[in-house]
Amino acid sequence: MRDPILKKRARGMRTLPTEAExxxxxxxxxxxxxxxxxxxxxxxxxxxxxxxxxxVCVAVEVDGGQHADSSYDEARTAFLMxxxxxxxxxxxxxxxxxxxxxVTSVLEALGGPRDADTRPHPxxxxxxxxxx
Length: 132
Known about the structure:
Blueprint: H1 4-15, H2 19-28, E1 39-44, E2 47-53, E3 58-63, H3 71-82, E4 86-91, H4 92-97, H5 99-110
Parallel strand pairs: 3-4
Antiparallel strand pairs: 1-2, 2-3
């Protein structure tokens, strides 16, 4: 079930990213990170993920100081993990000072770059291949 209020909130968050989110998005957008596709501010009700790779259920969260020792974040992480998500958390300072290191960690968590030869063909041939 879609939550229109959450969806609207996610859209609004996309228009006002933090500097750290903006910087990381430059590496994640358009399948630039090893061919993996990410979405930003992706709703998983009742939460919104900063960045999500839906294919392998990996979420990347960029946190400021308000997230230190947050029971809300602990509950959120537990909720998402119960649903098969792997959560990667990085501090804003890490993203801003060492974006390449953060991106390398994300790529390692994804299992490395995708091999273009293993991607599904965008227009696969019909099953049976007979062409009857």
